[in-house]
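Propose amino acids for all 321 sites.
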């Protein structure tokens, strides 16, 4: 269930009056829904998009459930990698969340954050572990913090439309890498797909059954560890046949699939990065990203004279929501 936020909370979080915030909602500048009682409510994703597109500052991020320091620092991607890498090894979870939400507010997509920040950072942590600079518990704690962040980003993506194309996915038998498999789910949800991860360490027969029974438009497979290459090649090719029959596209990615292995397997697309997956998903289903109200022909926020933006409206009868 998506967490909904009231105009009062958002208004305080971004330092404007509640009536101004309500007027922006009514002008469609911030996507909102209304409760049965007619009260306005917003999703965090809509508020993040409004802040990103309007450049409006955030003064009390905690009111939106975000770390207190969000919105105060601009990051180059390199600086963000350095800060997240040291914070992950040190177990500073709120710092990791803060930098990632700063990047989202600065306009970076989850796909770019995964490819250009979190993946390189996890590689660095692998090197620190391999050369003894990071202990096993620090690597594992970093993985847990990363997984909680991915679930938070999953719950922050906009609600998926009922008619959205479906996708399911996971990892093969003996592959317990949840991070890249969950990143694929969040990337697909961020471009409007009803994507559901069905788990890790999945035997091929149950993946074939999942495709036959749920008939997804897309099946993704994250391959970070292969225990038996021969069984892998046979399993993937059987899976592709079933997917093809059903009309499901098979997208594969992962560092364990070497060039020579790729020659032996069938798939619809092989993705070197999550950008590849996002582009493939968009090509399959041109997700008309929910127009930011500004871009929907309504006046762009920065085109509305500040005086007009600040004009207050009559609060609703029985106003405070
Ligand atoms: C975290 C980690 C683990 C964690 C995983 C935690 C989790 N919940 O996911 C745990 C502790 C489970 C683990 C276990 C092992 N690990 Co490990 N692990 C890592 C580490 C540090 C980071 C991996 C990661 O999350 N990367 C982040 C992802 C997003 O990046 P990526 O995989 O490069 O993905 C990019 C692309 O490939 C692509 N992509 C990847 N997957 C997908 C999927 C789709 C659908 C798409 C579209 C794209 C895509 O997009 C990504 C971004 O650009 C790596 C170091 C490294 N260099 O990667 C070692 C590493 C991969 N592990 C290694 C090893 C050896 C192991 C073990 C075998 C150790 C052991 N003896 O037990 C086990 C195997 C476990 C198993 N059976 O699955 C070695 C692999 C060496 C090799 N080449 O084979 C590495 C390289 C460490 C090292 N330096 O030696 N590991």
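Proposal:
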């Amino acid at each position: 269930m998506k967490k909904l936020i009231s105009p009062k909370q958002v208004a305080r979080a971004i330092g404007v009056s509640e009536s101004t915030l309500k007027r922006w909602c009514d002008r469609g500048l911030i996507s909102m829904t209304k409760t049965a009682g007619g009260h306005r409510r917003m999703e965090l994703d809509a508020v993040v998009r409004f802040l990103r597109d309007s450049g409006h500052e955030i003064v009390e991020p905690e009111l939106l459930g975000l770390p207190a320091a969000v919105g105060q620092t601009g990051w180059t991607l390199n600086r963000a990698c350095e800060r997240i890498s040291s914070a992950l090894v040190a177990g500073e979870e709120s710092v990791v969340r803060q930098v990632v939400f700063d990047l989202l507010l600065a306009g970076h997509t989850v796909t770019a954050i995964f490819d250009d920040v979190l993946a390189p950072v996890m590689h660095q942590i692998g090197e620190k572990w391999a050369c003894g600079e990071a202990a096993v518990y620090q690597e594992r704690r970093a993985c847990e913090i990363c997984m909680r962040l991915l679930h938070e980003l999953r719950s922050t993506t906009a609600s998926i439309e009922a008619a959205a194309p479906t996708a399911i996915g996971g990892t093969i038998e003996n592959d317990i890498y949840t991070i890249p498999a969950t990143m694929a789910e969040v990337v697909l949800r961020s471009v409007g797909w009803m994507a559901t991860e069905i788990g890790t360490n999945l035997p091929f027969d149950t993946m074939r059954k999942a495709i036959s029974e749920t008939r997804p438009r897309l099946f993704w497979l994250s391959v970070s560890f292969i225990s038996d290459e021969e069984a892998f090649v046979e399993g993937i090719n059987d899976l592709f046949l079933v997917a093809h029959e059903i009309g499901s596209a098979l997208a594969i990615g992962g560092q364990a699939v070497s060039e020579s292995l790729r020659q032996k397997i069938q798939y619809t697309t092989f993705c070197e990065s999550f950008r590849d997956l996002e582009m493939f998903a968009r090509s399959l289903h041109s997700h008309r990203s929910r127009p930011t109200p500004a871009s929907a022909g309504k006046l762009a926020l920065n085109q509305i004279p500040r005086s007009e933006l600040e004009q207050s409206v009559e609060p609703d009868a029985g106003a405070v929501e």
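Residues 77-155 form a domain with the Methyltransferase, Methionine Synthase (B12-binding Domains); Chain A, domain 1 fold (CATH 1.10.1240.10). The pocket of cobalamin is lined by residues 114-115, 119, 122-123, 125-126, 130, 140, 143, 174-180, 183-184, 220, 222, 224-225, 251, 253-255, 271, 273-274, 277 (CB under 6 Å).
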